[in-house]
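Entry:
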Amino acid sequence: MWSLPLLRHTDVPPRVTENFILSGYRFPNYSLWQCLVSAFRPTNETGNFWTHFLPIFVFTFHFLEVFTWEDAPEPSNPFFYPFWNYFLGVLYLLLGSSLAHLLNSMSLIIREICFFVDYGTISAYTVGSSLAYYYYIHPQAGIPEIGFEGQNSTRRQSLNSDEESWPSASSPTQVQLFFESLYIPSSCLVAIICVITCCNTRQCWWKYRYAVRTLVFLLPFFVSSTPVFYRLLSPSASSLSSSSPHLFSTMAAFFYRHCFWLVVSALFNISKIPERFSPGNFDIWGHSHQWFHCCTFLSILDELQMIKVEMWALLLNPTLVLSSATPPRLPGPTLWSTYGVMVLLQGCIACIIAWFGWQAYQIYQPEQKKLKGH
């Protein structure tokens, strides 16, 4: 493995090269073992792998902290269904991205499939975020009767016993109708559109592929973040959904930081700074895609903290949105409304990847045969 030479951009197929990265390329005929070992060798993909692989463990550590909270339900409780789906979405994104960068030198065809999967995991992450936003940050989010234990159980049981006396909303607003009927389906539809568009950039719009991919994923961000925008822009929603002004301001601060890191990551991905100003000097370490990975993970970490703040608010005061002046809370999460949505989405994404993978096989199979004799 260590004797395999690293190549310059002039020695590999044009499809393998990246703008302003002149050296450190692996030839696209590595074995699986050679690709795995290359994670410990300085190539121009090494940093791309580690900047999304190591964050898996950091994210898992912060994720599991929730289950150590006092009076928190069991991890298998339905209250945590959306949270587990959010975890799966982030895990798919980080693991899919790191493996795509590690394994893409096995062949030109596998390279294409690796990045098709990468785009699919990003879309799965956006839907996982939407599920967490819907059940924890939605203005009508609340805790259903799901068998909590602890010092607040008496208050929760009393709350549930009085639930039937609450008046229902006589005329739900358009915003309420969107959240209740269209929010999750819209998130899934936009996620599928994003996968198709990003996969298309492997063949179309090649010159502007980074800008197209970055801008395309703005759409799922705006759709999935609508509960947060509504909370921030509607005084009534913020007052009903937070147990204290402090928790609401903390949630808002984490969301603004989440947006900041997303903007910075987009700038790195589109501008190709710093390697644009010094081609060849950032081939192995410090190029824009590594900074892009770091910033996207920081945005995810702030998003996780934002969700945890809202979960803590719900556990602290389950009566947040339940009063005679407001519509009833949303139905609690179920296996079908959380895991079922994710499984259905993954099936659709798998079909899309299979179709584009077949197209890539037809396009690159003749060229790959020539490379095997190289």
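The chain is about 65% helix and 0% strand.
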